[in-house]
Amino acid sequence: MTPHPHRGGRNEPFYTTFVATKIAEILNLSEKEVEELTTNNAKRLFKALESVN
Fold first, then answer.
1. Residue 34 lies in a domain
2. pTM greater than the 0.90 cutoff
3. CB distance 2 to 11 below 8 Å
4. Residues 5-48 pLDDT 10s
5. pLDDT for residue 46
6. Would residue 26 count as lying in a domain?
């Protein structure tokens, strides 16, 4: 689903900044903290996937 304020349009990777901002607001974190957490999660996920193959 495209985040507000672009709802109804095509979803684009650029909009992840809107999602990160909303996550930060909900979890009472800074946007920088959300960026660090999601980056670390992605690194762990892709490292784990490499070991599966």
1. yes
2. no
3. yes
4. 888 888 888 889 999 999 999 999 999 999 999 999 999 999 88
5. 92
6. yes
| Distance in angstroms (rounded) separating the CA atoms of residues 31 and 47 | 24
| Structural domain containing residue 17 | 13-52
Number of domains in the chain: 1
In angstroms, the Cα distances linking 52 to 3, 45, 49 are: 33, 11, 5
Single-letter amino acid code for the residue at 21: T
The count of other CB atoms within 10 Å of the CB of residue 36 is 12
pLDDT at 53 over 70: no
The conformation of residue 12, written as its DSSP 8-state character, comes to -
